[in-house]
Amino acid sequence: MSVGFWVLFVLFLVLLALAIRRQEDPGPVLKRVLEQGAKLVPRMICALVAAGFVAELLPKQAISQFMGADAGLWAIPVAAGAGLLIPAGPVIAFAIAAVFASAGASTPALIAFVTSWSIFATHRILIYEVPMLGGSFLRLRLLSVLVIPFMAGIIATLVGFITQFGTAIPNI
Fold it and tell me: What is the phi/psi pair of residue 105, to 5°?
């Protein structure tokens, strides 16, 4: 099991101990857990199945060619562009990042991809930002953060020159 699982498990135990110590009624908490579980579990199952299909459809040779270590600094804008185009939540986006890593994408490219996806999530822009905040807000936000994925990839490259930070090892 992963470190993240154990961190969440310990956090759960701490919160459970605090709730028991306060002697509060667990009914509302259990109701909320069941409500959230009923919403999230079916979505997670669908997202994981979709991520599996996406992983099989991506051309691994092209990923290695355009985002691998041999691509040099060109891998960073390619990865940032790919992050911009992923209209999905974290389950699919990180599954795609793991596929990129297993296909030979460089660590700076993966950092640029994840950073770009985090900042420019297409689904969030189309569903929330444009309808609720308008086009002028979106333009200003995008222009103000446009260089961040590129900077993150370049900083990762520079750190890689100074120290050996390793590579991503996907568990897929």
Answer: -65, 145
Query: Do the domain assignments include residue 80?
Result: yes
Two structure tokens written together for 142: 């995008």
CA distance 131 to 139: 13
Beta bridge partners of 105: 68
Q: How many domains, in total, are found in the chain?
A: 1
Q: Is residue 15 part of a domain?
A: no
pLDDT along the chain (172 residues), means of 10: 83 85 81 88 81 78 88 92 87 85 90 95 89 93 94 90 67 55
Q: Which domain holds residue 114?
A: 28-162
11 domain residue, yes or no: no
User: Across the chain, which distance is largest between two alpha carbons, in Å?
Assistant: 60
Report pTM: 0.74
